Each structure stands twice: as structure tokens, then as C-alpha cells.
Amino acid sequence: MQTQVLGYPRIGGQRELKKANEQYWAEKIEREELEQVAQAIRHQNWQLQKTAGITLIPSNDFSFYDQVLDWSLTLGAIPKRYQPLRTNEGLSLLDLYFAMARGYQKGGFDITAMEMTKWFDTNYHYIVPEFYKGQQFELTSLKVVEEYKEAKKIGIETKPVILSLVSYLLLGKAKEQDFNVLSLVDSLLPVYLEIIKRLTDEGVQYIQIDEPFLVLDLTEEQKKAITSFYNIIQSSFPDLKVIVATYFGGLEDNASLALALPVEVLHIDLVRNEEQLEEILNKVPASLKLSLGVVDGRNIWKNDYEQSLTLIDKAIERRGKEKIIIATSCSLLHSPIDLEGEVKLTTEIKQWLAFAKQKVQEVVDLAKLASVVDREGILVYQENKIAQHDKRTSTLIHHEAVKRRVQGITEQDAQRKAPFSTRQPLQHKALDLPLFPTTTIGSFPQTKEVRQWRAKFKKGELTAQQYEDLLKQETARAIQWQEEIGLDVLVHGEFERNDMVEYFGEQLEGFTFTQNGWVQSYGSRCVKPPVIYGDVYRSKPLTVFWSAYAQSLTKQKVKGMLTGPVTILQWSFVRNDIPRSETCTQIALAIRDEVVDLESANIEIIQIDEPAIREGLPLRKAAWDSYLDWAVRAFRISASGVKNETQIHTHMCYSEFNDIIQHIAAMDADVITIECSRSQMDLLDAFAAFKYPNEIGPGVYDIHSPRVPTEEEMLYLIKKAENYIPTKQLWVNPDCGLKTRHWEETEKALIAMVNVSKKLREESLVEAI
Ligand code: GLN
Ligand code: ZN
Fold first, then answer.
1. What positions constitute the catalytic site (predicted)?
2. What is the pLDDT of residue 689?
3. HSE-up of 502 (CA within 13 Å, CB side)?
4. What percent helix, strand, coil does the chain show, rounded to 5?
5. What CA–CA distances, in Å, run from 195 to 59, 202, 213, 247, 370?
6. How far is the C-alpha of 450 from the C-alpha of 481, rounded, in Å?
7. What digits encode the pLDDT tens for the residues 711-749?
């Protein structure tokens, strides 16, 4: 039976590529050394898949930085600002590529990097292609051909993976107004045909063309473009076996279109959308092979063979074995590499997991098991069954009390005691803050020293007491400094936190952490998400110690600082045996207990950060409301255990609110602080048009840059905000946490910000007279 992997992680088992890239950028190694590291990774990946017995092994899934940027370079979609680097500076193609990814500041040049954005609903970021009217393309890099040849040279036949013409265009951004990227189809098509020609000349038999947009809402024009692209390929290369790969969702209303494409194989994601199988089996033409994506490329859980085989058996029964391929649901890029290296996970938890290398084996196991009648006699099947059974019944995972509590949540639990209009005057009375109150988003600079203390503490070079004392000093300094410069609502500074999700995960039950479970986020940046394996609950207070300590040092209000349930969920690997919404509710209850405990410790203002609410939005619009309903409800559950006088803040680091503003309002936070300094108008428009009732702190300066903003700029922004939002609803704050900044610029910026607020107060006093 045929088996396929849609893509394999390329960072290397020990993040070799990350390290080599960074050394190359720092000019510490030569290009040859970097190339050697890259080649070793590719060879290992191919060899591993071949040894396992995968029949359709991907090539061109390697990338030094990002596969979309690779493709832009292949097609010669190089924005004009980089041209001088090639013509005058004589940069190699690789260096040009890195310049596009990272910007170029050398030899008098100061060229900005290309934009980066999230790859569909994953945490991977790709480099956004830039498109211009009348843009010309030309075959510029032969990477895809070279990698195919490279594999062939070591005796491995691969299927090159490329991004479809339509999906590539739709992933890009039109850099001019009134211009439809699909108008570029005609100039791009010849380059595609040329690439495919070169590949077939080398003997390529199968090619994987990724068409992820087939699981999204498409316009008629986009649908036509997709059909016509495959028709042209088919007529130009009648012998080429094309695999159309869809992933991250179901085909739904695009099913008929996809099934009618003149290709050899259609790949569907049965992890994200199992229900689509029935319809597809009913409609699939006799000649089309189906690739069943049953092994989850997005997660870390061991495949449930019994469950996958139900789908596979059904498909084989209807189509015959020759017409079915067993596959990963999407590229394995999104899962960590190898479970074997994990020595700290408990054996019980470890037997529930599978990383990329194990997932390759799962694909092969499933294909073998598919041919067997008496599976019970087969070892891998038995072992898998035992692991699944253990997981279903483990007392590590299942806690009756947690499940009961979730069941017992009432509508009241998800609602503050009184509406905002009643809470607001009570809070104003209790908190006694001036107009234009100033605050920050939570973190202060995590200096090298602070990070070193934590490292030393973890290595045992500092005792818990020593570490705590150092953090106390740092916190005390931050409190004193905030008092000195006249901020109104203080924060403790988050010096004790490594990361806003990890810090909570480490203290909550139901979470565990890997040692080496790295996943590429963008370029050389990798993340190691926490693993939520079981029912989540809080067995002890999480943040009360530090908030109470900070509050004990000052008469001013110190704001408690928590990460919200949706963000904790979104940035973790989440268990797949219960709905995500249920895990989210469990986390919400844990945070709720923390909020109540903070209130009991006399913390009167509590912020619950939700920077990830928006990125959790489903790919299809039709699914938005149901996601937003449970996400907003989770936030409300976390926030609603307190009395009316306690002021709940939330924070989000983005500014596109137009399409979800009513849900943001439904969160009913007393104060929301948002990213705003980059695109003020749009944002405030949304809030004004909606008549957003609660208080807002539109960030008055961009913390992502070391640049210190002038008072004039900030004044201008707040005055503009005043045109949209009533004065008594406005707060003054930066647009995100200050963790990544240095103290030097932080001090200057915040002093200026406080001055601005003072000036505004004076002005409004004068006006009142
Ligand atoms: N409270 C967090 C901080 O200040 C918020 C971070 C975020 O929004 N990403 O660091
Ligand atoms: Zn933020």
C-alpha cells in the first residue's frame, strides 16, 4: 500500500539548523558549513522515511527560513527594494534570501524585511509575498530541482512539494490598491510550467502540489483559477502524477471542485475533519486516488489505530486498496521531532505521545495493519490499544471533581454580579483614579541579570531563597520607580516569569513539559509549547505571592497579572480526547480561583491577558461564532468570581477588531488595553461605531521598537482617541508588555507618557472651568 508524508521538520533533532543559521548570520561560519548542516538534515530525513517504508517521500520540504519565501525566490517574486543587493552588492541568492527574510542593514543599505504572518491557524509564520500590478516572474532558484536530484543521488526517489499557483497568490499581499492578485495568474503560469518541465526532465513521477485554500471559503473566481491551473498542468504533463494536498480543515463546499480536478491523488485531512470522508467516498470518481490524512501533523498524541482503521477500512472497502494512500494529515513541520530523546517525561505520559519520527512509523504501521484481518494478533496493534485504553482511564488524566465542576457551571458563573454601568461608578469610587489614568501592560524589562538568576536557580547554583530575594529586590525597585515617576496603577513587573503561558502551565495540574519538543515558529525561532495532557486544575495559588508582595510595598493600587484561558490553550499542545472548549473551561475555572484569591489578598485591579483570542479564530467564517462563544464564555468564567468594585482588565496585542468587536465587548472586561499605535484609525473606528461601552487603553506607543516616542506623538494619539471615545473611558498605556525592552528606553518613554497624561488632565480642568 502506498504511504505518504506531506513534509518533515527541518530544524534538525538538536535544532542544528537554527544554530547554523544564526552562526552564519553572525559571520561565524562559512556558507559551506551551513550547507553541510542543511544537507545532513535533508539526508537524515529522507533516509529515516525510506527506512521506515514510506513510499511517497517529500523533497523541497526543507527550508533555510521559510518554504513560502523559498517559493517566492524560485518564482523570482523579489520586491524591487532588494534588487540593488543583487546587481550592485553582488549578493548570492542565499544572502538575498536572508535579506528578504530579515532585512538588510549593511554597506549604507537599510532595507526592511518582508512582512511575516501566521500560516493558516498554526503558530508557524511565513514570509508574505508582495505583489504589484503587472509584476513579471522568472525562474530564479532551482532549489526544488536540486533537492530532488540530491535525494536521487543517494538512491531515494522523492515527490517534490510545491505550493500551488492559486494558493501562492492568495497567501500574498497586493501592495497596490484596486488590484486583484489573481490578475497575475497569466504571468506566473509559464514559470510554473517551466519548473514542472525541469522536474519531469529529471524523471520526477509524483509531485505534491499544496492547495490549502481548498479548505477555506473561496470566491467563484478563485475556484475557477484553481480548476484551470490543474487542467493546464494535466494537458501539459499528461504522464505526471499530481497529488493535490489539502489540510487544516474539510473541503466542505469545495468538495465537488476538488474531486473533479484532473489529478492522480487528492489528499484530505481526516484529523481536522473526519466527517468529510463519507461525502467524499460517495462522490469520488473511479480514477482518483484518495490520500487519507489520519496521522495528526499538528499535535503530539499517539495515533489511535483502532479509530484510524475504522476510516481506512471503510475507504478500502469502497475503493479498493490500490486507490487509497495512508498519510499524515498535513506536514509534520508542526510537531516536534523525536520522542526518544525525552527522558524526563513520566513513562505513563510518554506512551501516549508520538513526535514526527514516531508519526512516520504510525503511517507505515497503519498501512500494514490495513491489510491484516486478524489485527489482535499483531504486536503494534495490541500495544497501541493498551496505550489508548490506559489514556482513557488513567487517573493522571481524569479527575471527576474537575469534570463535575465544569458540568455544574451556571450562566451566573459566567456573569459579573452587576452590569458595567453599575460597576463603573463603584470602581471609580473605590479606586479613586484621576482622568487619563496611566498604567503599563505588566512586564518590565527582563534584563540579562534577571534571566541569569533564573538559569542559576534552575541549575541549583542559587537556592530558592536566594532567587526569591533577588526577585524581591527587583520587584521592589520597579514599584518604587513607578511611584516616583507618577504612574497611577502599578504592576509588579513579572520578573519571576519565564513566559506568560509556561509560568502558569508549570504550576497548574494537567500540564507537562518536554525537554526537546521544539517546533519552528519562524526562521530560526523555535518554541516549546507546554503539553496539556489531562484535566486542568489549580492546586495552589499561582501569582498571589508576588502580587501581594508588590502591593505590600505601596499605597497605590498594584494590578494583578494573569494569562487568560484562551491564550493558555492556544499556545499549548492540547489533548485531543475532549473538545478544546472543555479544556479551555477547565483552565478558566483555575484562573477564576486565582482571581478570587487575588481579590482576597486585597488586589483591587486584576488583568487577564488574552493576546491569542483572535488567532484562535477558525479558518471558515461559518465556524467563528461558535468558537467565539466558548472562548468569550471562558474569559467571563475566569473574570466573574469577584465583587463589582474589583476592576477586571484584559489586554490584546492586535488591532483588527472590526469583525469581532461585539465579541470583545461581550467579554465585559472593565478595561481593555490594546495594540493601537500602528493603525489607530481603523481600530478606534471599530470601537466608536460599535459604541463600545467599557473603558479602553489604546496603546499610545509601540513597544516593539527601542525608539523613545515623543510627548507630541503620544498627545496626538490620545487626542485623536478622544474624538472617538468619551474621555472618562480612556486610559493611557503602552501597547504591550515591556519585557523585551531595556530599562533605559523604558524609563524615558514612561516618564514622557506620564507627562502627557498630566497635561491632558490640566487641559480638561481648564475646559471644565
Ligand atoms: N502581561 C504580559 C506582559 O506584559 C502581556 C504580554 C502580551 O500581551 N503578549 O508581558
Ligand atoms: Zn501584548
1. 704
2. 87
3. 10
4. 50, 15, 35
5. 14, 11, 22, 24, 36
6. 17
7. 999 999 999 899 889 999 999 999 999 999 999 999 999
Neighbour tally for 479: CB within 10 Å: 22
End-to-end CA distance of the chain: 84
- Give me the pLDDT at residue 769, please: 67
Q: 560 CB less than 6 Å from ligand 1?
A: no
Q: Cβ(698)–Cβ(741) under 8 Å?
A: no
Please work out, in degrees rounded to the nearest 5, the angle formed at the alpha carbon of residue 321 by the alpha carbons of 318 and 326.
100
Q: Does ligand 1 have an atom closer than 6 angstroms to the CB of 741?
A: no
**Residue 719 grid cell:** 487626542
> Is residue 124 scored above 70 in pLDDT?
yes
Q: Average pLDDT, whole number, for the chain?
A: 96
Write the CA distances from 42 to 10, 151, 157, integer angstroms: 7, 8, 13
Q: Which amino acid is located at 154 in the chain?
A: I
Q: Is residue 382 predicted with pLDDT exceeding 90?
A: yes
Strand 130-131 vs strand 173-174: parallel, antiparallel, or unpaired? parallel
- What is the arithmetic mean of pLDDT over 113-124? 92
Q: Which amino acid is at 591?
A: I
Closest ligand by atom to 497 CA: 1
CA–CA dist 143, 428 (Å, integer): 63
d(CA 755, CA 715): 10
Q: Which of 496, 739, 740 to mutate to test the pocket of ligand 1 (most atoms within 8 A of CB)?
A: 739
Q: List the one residue out of 96, 89, 87 whose CA is nearest residue 127.
A: 96
Give the residue, by CA position, lying nearest to ligand 1 atom 3. Answer: 737
Is 615 labelled a binding residue?
Answer: yes
Which residue has a Cα nearest atom 4 of ligand 1?
737
Helix axes 220-236, 185-201, angle to 10 degrees: 30
Q: Is 454 annotated as a binding residue?
A: no
Q: Is 290 left (phi over 0), alpha (psi -120 to 50) or beta?
A: beta
Burial of 769 (0-12, 13-18, 19+ CB in 10 A): exposed
Per-residue pLDDT tens for 419-448?
Answer: 999 999 999 999 999 999 999 999 999 999
- With a cut of 70, say whether residue 86 has pLDDT above it: yes
Q: Name the DSSP letter for residue 730.
A: B
Mutate to test the pocket of ligand 1, among 494, 605, 608, 610 (most ligand atoms within 8 A of CB): 494
Residue 337 CA to residue 354 CA, distance in Å, equals: 9
Euclidean distance between CA atoms 266 and 264, whole angstroms: 7
pLDDT class of 682 with cuts at 50, 70, 90: low
Report whether residue 614 contacts ligand 1, using a CB cutoff of 6 Å.
no
Q: Is 609 in the pocket of ligand 1 (CB under 6 A)?
A: yes
- Ligand number nearest CA of 653 is 2
Q: Tens digits of per-residue pLDDT, 351-375?
A: 999 999 999 999 999 999 999 989 9
Burial of 185 from C-beta contacts in 10 A (0-12 / 13-18 / 19+): middle
Using the atom order of ligand 1, give the atom closest to the CA of residue 442.
Answer: 4
From the CB of 441, is ligand 1 less than 6 Å away?
yes
Digit-coded pLDDT (tens) for 300-338: 999 999 999 999 999 999 999 999 999 999 999 999 999
526 annotated to a ligand binding site: yes
634-663 pLDDT, tens digit per residue, is 999 999 999 999 999 999 987 788 889 999
Residue 688: pLDDT band with limits 50, 70, 90: confident
Within 10 angstroms of residue 179's Cβ, the number of other Cβ atoms is 15
Active-site positions read 704
**Ligand of minimum distance to the alpha carbon of 607:** 1
Q: With beta carbons less than 8 A apart as the criterion, state whether 159 and 206 touch.
A: yes
Residue 590 in contact with residue 538, Cβ under 8 Å?
yes
Assigned C-alpha cell, 420: 458595567
Spatial CA neighbour of 639 closest among 699, 565, 691: 565
CA triple 217-219-220, angle to 5 deg:
135
